[in-house]
Amino acid sequence: MKSFSLLIQELDQTTKTNARLKALTNYFERAESGDILWAIALFTGRRPKRPVVVSKLRKWAAEAGGVEHWLFEDSYHVVGDLAETIALILPEPEAHHDRSLRDWMRWLIELRDFEEPDQKHAILQAWSGLTADERFVFNKLITGGFRIGVSQKMMVKALAHHLDKDEASLAHRLTGKWDPESTTFDTLLLEENTKDDASKPYPFYLAYQLEQELEELGKPEEWQAEWKWDGIRGQVIIRNKEVFVWSRGEELVTEKYPEYHLFASALPDGTVLDGEILAHDGNTPLNFNVLQTRIGRKTVSKKLLNDAPVVLMAYDLLEHQGEDIRARPMEERRKLLESLVEEVGSPKLLLSPTVEFDSWEKLAQERARSRELMSEGIMLKRKNSDYKVGRKRGDWWKWKVDALTIDAVMIYAMRGHGRRANLYTDYTFAVWKGDELVPFTKAYSGLTDAEFRKVDSFVKKNTIDRFGPVRSVNPELVFEIAFEGIAKSTRHKSGVALRFPRMKRWREDKPASEANTLEDLNALLEQYG
Fold first, then answer.
1. Main-chain phi, psi angles of 205, to 5 degrees
2. Model-level pTM greater than 0.85?
3. Which of 237, 290, 399, 411 has a beta carbon 3.0–4.6 Å from 378's, enabling a disulfide?
4. Do 358 and 418 belong to one domain?
């Protein structure tokens, strides 16, 4: 744990990619293989279930620290991070536990089966033998809030340097359904000629947002354009007469989309499709809000299948007749995909249509029609490109339509998290309905650090009331809120829900009385919802 704790400190103290890469590489060089395996699992979201209810941890930490519960809660609101609050409030350690990361993770897994008094005793004993820095990491592991900001791409790069192996090969080995308790470091990363898990997906190829002028891309005929669909990126795999569905976040979601089970007999074995899991009524795509009703469900009812039907909008073929064809040119993969979709002829498997254009000006005109087609914009793919691993510049670009915007008044503020824990950076916004301000969205990104500090100062000087960590403030500040989509919502007082809301700019030039109205929001809903 000491070595892993040092790694977390090093990662937390810098935002520089090279420094983080060096810290990871150094950790892999000094750590035991069992600890490395668990570190990889933690950085890729393979955390075991939380062993203890968080409310109990807060109570036990307050008791161990000798503080009243209300004081602990107030401290938590100021610090903004539960793991850090506990680490700071506990007394100095009485001993030192010299367990490895692997040993601690196994201990945490076993802790789930303890009775509450035994859980409390075990955790107090653990806290008493860890330094403040080690406690912080330990608490992160218990609470399940382990987010350090290490991308899988960075971790794979460090591993490749440590093991002297190809990055693409390692990235593929780390996908799929595995956990540190059922595999070993050697099996996962070193053994050659091992039979891959039949469900294993390929690493996704991700595009950057287009920032340069279209003319800088070269000749239009060198590029294929498609609509950018507003769904969930996924891979559908057919191997051994079984269907496996993976989201881009490397979550196996097969059971959430029973519509795809028919692909087991319709598609040939050894087929892997890349595409969009898309809400679709058979004629046109539906709003993302429809698909969202299925995302968090463990089981999908017949009613939900009927109310939120989905298709796979396929746009690439990664494996054909059992062969990995990612190295072939996209143009060739596309022809194979077209033939496959036509041969299957399933209403649940659609081919993402290409956008016809013979000049960049024509493509710009087509992009302007995106929202009419329930699309987010255009995807541009070089026709001779292979299918790469991760986010790479050059061959794939996303050219999204400009965001929708509305001017709104800030009415509530909350403290942020991490490095913003001492600043009010999470805001609730409202629009006018007559003389009343109606809240409709929250946002916490889009401002500069200097602007956040300035707003924080305003919040502290203009607080009307407090509700736990939330402050109600004088409705004076106006912000332009940008968002990707809008839909009806019965969960919000305003009746609408926004997709990816963020602050585009602070309208210091505009008084609150000139902010937009609920009528304006409903007009956008009628036009784009």
1. -95, 125
2. no
3. 399
4. no
